[in-house]
Design a protein that fits this description.
alpha/beta, five-stranded parallel β-sheet, 247 residues, Trp Operon Repressor, Chain A, 10 helices, two-stranded antiparallel sheet, single chain, Alpha/beta knot, binds 6-chloroguanine
Length: 247
Protein backbone atom coordinates (compact mmCIF):
# COMPACT_ATOMS: atom_id res chain seq x y z
CA UNK A 1 0.00 0.00 0.00
CA UNK A 2 1.30 3.46 -0.95
CA UNK A 3 0.88 6.62 1.09
CA UNK A 4 1.82 9.81 -0.77
CA UNK A 5 1.84 12.86 1.49
CA UNK A 6 1.66 16.33 -0.06
CA UNK A 7 3.17 18.83 2.37
CA UNK A 8 5.20 22.01 2.70
CA UNK A 9 7.27 20.23 5.38
CA UNK A 10 8.45 16.89 3.98
CA UNK A 11 11.08 16.54 6.73
CA UNK A 12 8.31 16.38 9.35
CA UNK A 13 6.91 13.33 7.57
CA UNK A 14 10.30 11.65 7.03
CA UNK A 15 11.06 12.10 10.73
CA UNK A 16 7.85 10.39 11.79
CA UNK A 17 8.53 7.26 9.72
CA UNK A 18 12.30 7.04 10.27
CA UNK A 19 12.04 4.73 13.30
CA UNK A 20 10.17 1.83 14.78
CA UNK A 21 7.57 -0.55 13.40
CA UNK A 22 6.64 1.59 10.39
CA UNK A 23 10.26 2.09 9.31
CA UNK A 24 10.61 -1.72 9.36
CA UNK A 25 7.42 -2.06 7.30
CA UNK A 26 8.80 0.42 4.75
CA UNK A 27 12.17 -1.37 4.64
CA UNK A 28 10.39 -4.71 4.07
CA UNK A 29 8.30 -3.17 1.26
CA UNK A 30 4.97 -3.76 3.05
CA UNK A 31 4.07 -0.07 2.67
CA UNK A 32 5.61 2.97 1.02
CA UNK A 33 5.46 6.47 2.51
CA UNK A 34 6.45 9.23 0.08
CA UNK A 35 6.50 12.86 1.19
CA UNK A 36 6.03 15.20 -1.79
CA UNK A 37 7.11 18.80 -1.32
CA UNK A 38 4.33 21.07 -2.61
CA UNK A 39 6.87 23.90 -2.91
CA UNK A 40 8.74 21.95 -5.61
CA UNK A 41 5.66 22.46 -7.83
CA UNK A 42 5.45 26.23 -7.25
CA UNK A 43 6.57 28.50 -10.08
CA UNK A 44 8.89 31.49 -9.97
CA UNK A 45 12.08 32.39 -8.22
CA UNK A 46 10.43 32.45 -4.81
CA UNK A 47 8.24 29.38 -5.31
CA UNK A 48 5.34 31.02 -3.48
CA UNK A 49 2.74 28.53 -2.20
CA UNK A 50 0.32 30.85 -0.37
CA UNK A 51 -1.42 34.18 -0.82
CA UNK A 52 -3.85 36.53 0.96
CA UNK A 53 -7.54 35.58 0.91
CA UNK A 54 -9.93 37.22 -1.57
CA UNK A 55 -12.44 39.26 0.40
CA UNK A 56 -9.89 40.11 3.04
CA UNK A 57 -9.28 38.64 6.45
CA UNK A 58 -6.27 37.45 8.34
CA UNK A 59 -3.93 34.60 7.50
CA UNK A 60 -2.89 33.06 4.21
CA UNK A 61 -4.50 30.57 1.86
CA UNK A 62 -2.61 27.86 -0.01
CA UNK A 63 -2.62 28.68 -3.73
CA UNK A 64 -4.31 26.21 -6.08
CA UNK A 65 -1.59 25.91 -8.76
CA UNK A 66 1.20 24.16 -6.78
CA UNK A 67 -1.16 21.65 -5.14
CA UNK A 68 -2.84 20.93 -8.48
CA UNK A 69 0.52 20.34 -10.17
CA UNK A 70 1.61 18.08 -7.31
CA UNK A 71 -1.62 16.03 -7.42
CA UNK A 72 -1.40 15.73 -11.24
CA UNK A 73 2.13 14.42 -10.97
CA UNK A 74 1.12 11.83 -8.33
CA UNK A 75 -1.95 10.81 -10.37
CA UNK A 76 0.25 10.24 -13.43
CA UNK A 77 2.05 7.54 -11.45
CA UNK A 78 -0.98 6.29 -9.47
CA UNK A 79 -4.14 6.92 -11.57
CA UNK A 80 -6.43 5.17 -9.06
CA UNK A 81 -5.15 7.10 -6.04
CA UNK A 82 -7.78 8.23 -3.52
CA UNK A 83 -7.18 11.84 -2.45
CA UNK A 84 -7.85 12.96 1.11
CA UNK A 85 -7.57 16.51 2.44
CA UNK A 86 -6.57 16.72 6.10
CA UNK A 87 -8.72 19.42 7.63
CA UNK A 88 -10.55 20.04 10.92
CA UNK A 89 -13.71 20.27 8.77
CA UNK A 90 -13.46 16.64 7.68
CA UNK A 91 -15.25 13.57 9.02
CA UNK A 92 -13.69 12.36 12.26
CA UNK A 93 -11.16 9.57 11.82
CA UNK A 94 -11.75 6.33 13.75
CA UNK A 95 -10.74 2.67 13.71
CA UNK A 96 -13.63 2.11 11.32
CA UNK A 97 -12.26 4.76 8.93
CA UNK A 98 -8.85 3.07 9.07
CA UNK A 99 -10.42 -0.27 8.11
CA UNK A 100 -12.38 1.37 5.30
CA UNK A 101 -9.31 3.13 3.82
CA UNK A 102 -7.34 -0.13 3.96
CA UNK A 103 -8.98 -1.12 0.67
CA UNK A 104 -7.15 1.53 -1.40
CA UNK A 105 -3.87 0.72 -3.09
CA UNK A 106 -2.71 4.35 -2.99
CA UNK A 107 -3.79 7.19 -0.70
CA UNK A 108 -2.80 10.79 -1.36
CA UNK A 109 -2.92 12.83 1.85
CA UNK A 110 -2.92 16.60 1.33
CA UNK A 111 -1.70 18.50 4.39
CA UNK A 112 -3.30 21.92 4.69
CA UNK A 113 -1.49 24.82 6.38
CA UNK A 114 -2.35 28.41 7.24
CA UNK A 115 -6.06 29.24 7.01
CA UNK A 116 -6.65 26.43 4.56
CA UNK A 117 -6.41 25.61 0.87
CA UNK A 118 -8.15 27.33 -2.05
CA UNK A 119 -11.66 25.84 -2.28
CA UNK A 120 -11.19 24.98 -5.97
CA UNK A 121 -8.71 22.27 -4.92
CA UNK A 122 -11.41 20.67 -2.79
CA UNK A 123 -13.96 20.83 -5.62
CA UNK A 124 -11.69 19.47 -8.33
CA UNK A 125 -9.37 16.97 -6.65
CA UNK A 126 -10.45 15.95 -3.18
CA UNK A 127 -12.35 12.65 -2.75
CA UNK A 128 -12.62 12.84 1.04
CA UNK A 129 -11.95 15.24 3.92
CA UNK A 130 -10.73 13.87 7.24
CA UNK A 131 -10.07 15.36 10.68
CA UNK A 132 -8.45 13.48 13.57
CA UNK A 133 -10.55 15.16 16.26
CA UNK A 134 -12.20 18.32 17.45
CA UNK A 135 -9.17 20.53 18.06
CA UNK A 136 -7.06 22.66 15.73
CA UNK A 137 -3.50 21.82 14.65
CA UNK A 138 -1.08 24.16 12.88
CA UNK A 139 -1.12 21.82 9.90
CA UNK A 140 -2.25 18.45 8.61
CA UNK A 141 1.14 16.70 8.99
CA UNK A 142 0.55 15.17 12.44
CA UNK A 143 -2.90 14.08 11.25
CA UNK A 144 -1.39 12.43 8.16
CA UNK A 145 1.06 10.53 10.39
CA UNK A 146 -1.78 9.37 12.65
CA UNK A 147 -3.82 8.13 9.70
CA UNK A 148 -0.91 6.35 7.99
CA UNK A 149 0.03 4.65 11.28
CA UNK A 150 -3.50 3.46 12.03
CA UNK A 151 -3.97 2.04 8.51
CA UNK A 152 -0.47 0.62 8.02
CA UNK A 153 -0.58 -1.48 11.20
CA UNK A 154 -3.65 -3.28 9.83
CA UNK A 155 -1.75 -4.46 6.72
CA UNK A 156 -0.57 -8.07 6.81
CA UNK A 157 3.08 -8.39 7.81
CA UNK A 158 3.42 -4.91 9.34
CA UNK A 159 3.00 -5.98 12.96
CA UNK A 160 5.10 -8.84 14.33
CA UNK A 161 2.43 -11.28 15.52
CA UNK A 162 -0.37 -11.58 12.98
CA UNK A 163 -2.96 -11.65 15.77
CA UNK A 164 -1.86 -8.45 17.49
CA UNK A 165 -3.93 -6.04 15.37
CA UNK A 166 -7.04 -8.14 15.95
CA UNK A 167 -6.71 -8.15 19.74
CA UNK A 168 -6.22 -4.49 20.54
CA UNK A 169 -8.64 -1.90 21.82
CA UNK A 170 -11.47 -1.04 19.40
CA UNK A 171 -10.90 -3.89 16.96
CA UNK A 172 -13.86 -5.64 18.54
CA UNK A 173 -15.19 -2.43 20.05
CA UNK A 174 -13.92 -3.13 23.57
CA UNK A 175 -10.98 -1.73 25.52
CA UNK A 176 -8.07 -4.05 26.15
CA UNK A 177 -7.73 -6.14 29.30
CA UNK A 178 -4.87 -5.30 31.75
CA UNK A 179 -1.43 -6.71 30.91
CA UNK A 180 1.36 -7.81 33.25
CA UNK A 181 4.89 -9.09 32.76
CA UNK A 182 7.82 -10.02 35.04
CA UNK A 183 8.62 -9.40 37.85
CA UNK A 184 5.83 -11.25 39.63
CA UNK A 185 6.07 -8.80 42.55
CA UNK A 186 6.93 -5.19 41.78
CA UNK A 187 7.32 -2.72 44.65
CA UNK A 188 4.80 -4.71 46.66
CA UNK A 189 2.25 -5.01 43.82
CA UNK A 190 1.46 -8.50 42.53
CA UNK A 191 -0.10 -10.06 39.44
CA UNK A 192 -3.64 -11.58 39.34
CA UNK A 193 -3.30 -15.26 40.35
CA UNK A 194 -5.41 -16.44 37.44
CA UNK A 195 -2.77 -15.30 34.93
CA UNK A 196 -0.25 -17.59 36.66
CA UNK A 197 -2.64 -20.55 36.83
CA UNK A 198 -1.95 -21.98 33.39
CA UNK A 199 -5.71 -22.51 32.92
CA UNK A 200 -6.17 -20.99 29.48
CA UNK A 201 -9.94 -21.19 29.39
CA UNK A 202 -10.14 -19.34 32.71
CA UNK A 203 -7.59 -16.78 31.54
CA UNK A 204 -9.56 -16.14 28.34
CA UNK A 205 -12.72 -15.61 30.36
CA UNK A 206 -10.96 -13.31 32.87
CA UNK A 207 -9.58 -11.21 30.01
CA UNK A 208 -12.95 -10.91 28.28
CA UNK A 209 -14.62 -9.92 31.54
CA UNK A 210 -11.85 -7.40 32.31
CA UNK A 211 -12.34 -5.87 28.85
CA UNK A 212 -16.08 -5.62 29.41
CA UNK A 213 -15.62 -4.11 32.90
CA UNK A 214 -13.11 -1.52 31.69
CA UNK A 215 -15.25 -0.57 28.75
CA UNK A 216 -18.33 -0.17 30.96
CA UNK A 217 -16.43 2.00 33.44
CA UNK A 218 -14.26 4.07 31.07
CA UNK A 219 -16.07 4.23 27.71
CA UNK A 220 -19.65 2.94 28.21
CA UNK A 221 -20.80 4.47 24.90
CA UNK A 222 -18.64 1.91 23.04
CA UNK A 223 -20.91 -0.88 24.27
CA UNK A 224 -23.82 0.51 22.23
CA UNK A 225 -22.13 0.10 18.85
CA UNK A 226 -20.73 -3.40 18.87
CA UNK A 227 -21.99 -6.94 18.84
CA UNK A 228 -21.85 -8.58 22.29
CA UNK A 229 -22.24 -12.32 22.84
CA UNK A 230 -24.92 -13.78 25.09
CA UNK A 231 -22.25 -14.42 27.73
CA UNK A 232 -21.05 -10.79 27.46
CA UNK A 233 -24.57 -9.50 28.03
CA UNK A 234 -25.10 -11.83 31.00
CA UNK A 235 -21.81 -10.71 32.53
CA UNK A 236 -22.61 -7.01 32.04
CA UNK A 237 -26.04 -7.48 33.66
CA UNK A 238 -24.44 -9.03 36.75
CA UNK A 239 -21.73 -6.32 36.78
CA UNK A 240 -24.29 -3.52 36.52
CA UNK A 241 -26.38 -4.87 39.38
CA UNK A 242 -23.25 -5.30 41.55
CA UNK A 243 -22.29 -1.67 40.82
CA UNK A 244 -25.81 -0.44 41.53
CA UNK A 245 -25.77 -2.20 44.94
CA UNK A 246 -22.54 -0.39 45.86
CA UNK A 247 -23.86 3.00 44.70
CL1 LIG B 1 -6.58 16.96 9.75
N1 LIG B 1 -5.79 19.38 10.39
C1 LIG B 1 -5.66 20.43 11.24
N2 LIG B 1 -5.03 21.53 10.83
N3 LIG B 1 -6.16 20.42 12.46
C2 LIG B 1 -6.78 19.30 12.84
C3 LIG B 1 -6.93 18.19 12.02
C4 LIG B 1 -6.41 18.26 10.78
N4 LIG B 1 -7.62 17.23 12.69
C5 LIG B 1 -7.86 17.77 13.89
N5 LIG B 1 -7.37 18.99 13.97
Amino acid sequence: MNFVILTLFPDMISAMFGDGVLKKAIDKGKISVTPVNIRAFAEGKHQVTDDTPYGGGCGMVMKPEPITAAIRSVKAEFPDAYTILLTPQGRTFSQKTAEELLSYKTLVLVCGRYEGVDERIVEEWVDDEISIGDYVLTGGEPAAAVIVDAIARLRPGVLGGESSAKEDSFSDGLLEYPQYTRPRSFEGAGVPDILLSGDHAKIRRWRRESSLTRTLLKRPELLNDFALSKEDIEFLKRLRSRIEKIL
